[in-house]
Amino acid sequence: MTREPHIAEAYKKAAAEAEEGAPHGAPKPSVPASEPEAPVGPANTTEAETDHERQLEHDLEELTAKAEKADEYLELAQRTKADFENYRKRAAREAAVAQERGVAKLAKELLPAVDNLDRALVAAQSAAASDGAEAGSGHDNGTATLISGIKLVHDDVIAALGRAGIEGYSPKGERFDPQLHEAIAQQPVEGAESGTVVEVYQRGYRLGDVVIRPARVVVAA
Question: Is the pLDDT reported for residue 52 higher than 70?
Answer without folding.
Answer: yes
